[in-house]
Amino acid sequence: MDKIILNQMQFYGYHGLFPEENKLGQRFNVDLELYLDLKKPGESDNMYDSIHYGHVYELVQELVEGDVKNLIEAVAEGIAERLLAMFCLLQACKVTVTKPDPPIPGHYASVAVEIYRERSI
């Protein structure tokens, strides 16, 4: 399956279990793989035959910077649901939401969740 990839989109949101996360906020990174047939837009060179990744970015930004969730799992699920609802050409998507600086002790680069969702028939 062909795919459009959006890497390391960065946003500032207020998701998390701890009150300080909801008050102070933090950075979130989102990576997407959008699965669809790219043969037609590759031949036609017409944007209407594909998915406009600028619109995808705006949708993800609205969700990550919008309503507060306790879990990044819920953020990822909301992104996948909206993408599948908004883009009829999209057959499936992989969504990764990364918290680079979660408020937990230890030494690590980040924590993340990754989900894969397909369009229901």
From TrEMBL:
- What keywords were assigned to this record? Folate biosynthesis, Lyase
Q: Which organism is it from?
A: Oceanobacillus profundus
Q: Which family does it belong to?
A: Belongs to the DHNA family.
> What top-level branch of life does the organism fall under?
Bacteria
Q: What is the role of the protein in this entry?
A: Catalyzes the conversion of 7,8-dihydroneopterin to 6-hydroxymethyl-7,8-dihydropterin.
Biological process (GO), any one = folic acid biosynthetic process
Q: Name one GO cellular component term.
A: cytoplasm
Pathway the protein acts in: Cofactor biosynthesis; tetrahydrofolate biosynthesis; 2-amino-4-hydroxy-6-hydroxymethyl-7,8-dihydropteridine diphosphate from 7,8-dihydroneopterin triphosphate: step 3/4
Q: Name any one GO molecular function.
A: dihydroneopterin aldolase activity
This chain's protein is named 7,8-dihydroneopterin aldolase
The chemistry this enzyme catalyses reads: 7,8-dihydroneopterin = 6-hydroxymethyl-7,8-dihydropterin + glycolaldehyde
